[in-house]
Fold this sequence. Notes:
The chain contains twelve helices and no strands. It has helices spanning 3-16, 29-38, 44-57, 61-65, 69-75, 82-100, 108-111, 119-130, 139-147, 157-167, 173-186, 205-227. Helix content is 62%, strand content 0%. By secondary structure, the protein is an all-alpha fold. It has two domains: 1-190, Hypothetical protein, domain 2 (Endonuclease III, domain 1), CATH 1.10.340.30; 195-227. The longest helix has 23 residues, at 205-227. This is Endonuclease III. Its EC number is 4.2.99.18. GO terms for molecular function: 4 iron, 4 sulfur cluster binding; class I DNA-(apurinic or apyrimidinic site) endonuclease activity; DNA binding; DNA N-glycosylase activity; metal ion binding.
Amino acid sequence: MNQKQARYILDTIAEMFPDAHCELHHSNPFELTIAVLLSAQCTDETVNKVTATLFQKYKRPEDYLAVPLEELEQDIRRIGLYRNKAKHIQALCAMLLDKYDGEVPREHDKLVELPGVGRKTANVVVSNAFGVPAIAVDTHVERVSKRLGFAGENDSVLEVEKKLMKRVPREEWTQTHHRLIFFGRYHCKAQNPQCEACPLTEHCREGKKRMKTTRSRQPKQKEKQAKL
Length: 228
């Protein structure tokens, strides 16, 4: 892929999803951190249903530590891996109070030290809560990046992130992250991508395969119809 092709793909996705944004509901950096932690292997839709009541009950790190672990587990039990996530939340809150006066740190290297916070979560927090350009690679971003040739099929998540950072102008990192998620979530889905209605099929590994298969089937289907 050359820079001209990359620019065309980015501009096309931008036209398709001009209003792409973070779909996790939150009102401050702390809520966003908790929401992203909960979103691992879980849909944003489910997380938003849980946090609608969770964020009314728990406002500050102190609130999460004021209840038994079992109570917090029950409050998030609709979330996948809720037991581990409840432990991470309480440990995270304890560290925030101990090291950062209860505030979520702005620095990426400090965020990844928090329990339950990996590189992806830290990227989401710094970009959405603090306005620092970052590309968080979730399952949608990884899938789309590999299909469209921004990254190799066997690249790790970190390699995908680094290659996107090289291809995409820094000031566009955060918005591109959101647009790639929308593109993957609503158009280029894992199981049923909308290849027939996609303006990027010629640039897409998966699209080329699927369209080639579709074209090869058409003559056989016509033969069957002719015999009937």
